[in-house]
Amino acid sequence: MAKRLVLIGAGSAQFGFGMLGDIFQSAALAGSEVVLHDINPDALSRVSAFAQAFVRERALPFTVTATTSRSEAVKHADFCIIAIEVGDRFALWEQDWRVAQQYGIPQVYGENGGPGGLFHSLRIIPPILEICGDIAGLAPEALVFNYSNPMSRICTTVKRAFPDLRLVGMCHEIAMVPLHLPRMLGTPVENLRYRAGGLNHFSVLLELHYRDSGRDAYPDVRARAVEYFRGIPDTSEVMEWLDRLKAGGTGEPPPKARRDWCERGLIIEILSRFGYLPVTSDSHFGEYIQWAHGVVDHHGILDFYTWYKGYCQRRREPEIRMLGYEERAVPIIEGMLTDSGYEEPAVNVLNQGLIANLPAEIAVEVPATVGRNGVAGVVLGRLPAGIAGLLQNQIAVHELTAEAVLQRSREIALQALLVDPVVGSLHAAERTLATMLELQPAHLGYLR
After folding, report:
1. pLDDT tens-digit readout, 357-375
2. In terms of residue numbers, what domain contains 57?
3. Given the residues 37, 76, 172, 180, the one annotated as active site
4. What is the pTM of this model?
5. Would the N or C end of the chain have less CB density within 10 A of its end CB?
6. Residue 180 catalytic?
7. Closest CA to 85 of 69, 96, 77, 76
8. Could you report the per-residue pLDDT of 151-167, keeping only the tens digit for each?
């Protein structure tokens, strides 16, 4: 069924080529136009030329066009997929991370939660609001997928600015569940039925059953998880294996390697103290918790960051792969076009009663059913009191982040720092904010 799909941020080889591979293998989208948009004309030209040659050489039933004009790109779109960053991604990220630490704020990663998550949000949300404003005006019926982080704060703010926009936030972090649980439980992933919920990068496995027997599998997770995670191989072993694969090599992974390194100190503590398994790693979950700095695997976090930075910055030959879907946007689009009614494991949408003990206007991560009418979050009811307590500590942070952007307010940005559980000092919050405004005036100078 021919549609107009717009990839915003398509000049990124990692995002652009991956999403193109997903689209080109979809029979349901045959005949569609794929519009590539990026503000970097050189990067856009490289991706566009390669994609057009790929379609032509294989006689694929798709049309690929490219434009640096955002209004031209989104006009009459059926689906828009956003994956952008601003500025020098890693240089800015390291400022987000290290400046707060220099003033004594013990944040463990600095990407999505804590002070780093705030500055990342203040930097990236304004251009995303501009993008969504164009979509709302030129393609008001389009379904918009956001892949940019910090996911929860972006989705919360966008829906405040454009409440009628059909927005779904997408993150593959839930993939940790099918990676770990089959090995831990000794059963194929097809035999597991599970649901998770919470905030993006701050979500836990809520229920887990064996399909063949209907038996609750959570007692087995609680009995086996600590031994399993402590048996994951050394971080460097996994990185070396992944580097070989990315370079085109082959070989078996280290025993029990599950592509998430050994960032499991905090995850084990959360399972032990609260009884529920986070679906992500120490680096992500730990950004939101004030006592995380004392228990996370710092070595694993630093090793992963070093590897990930090198992987993203390494020049690679263009490659479009059609070996199964890398992301979840295309399966959702297919589910809508075919009215399949299948359940997607994790989407980010406004709460609106999906999680009873969190506010309605905050973006939450929940499963969703997908059909002709779009993406509908699954009602999870009340979360366990301890897990809900951890999540509720972030509500004011998200609220104030959105207001700081929408009101362009330095004062409210400071308030967002001061209500963050990771921040324990007024002086540190003030100095961190002042320093970040000095370091990133091109991106944060709008705050008055």
Report:
1. 999 999 999 999 999 999 9
2. 4-172
3. 172
4. 0.93
5. C
6. no
7. 96
8. 999 999 999 999 999 99
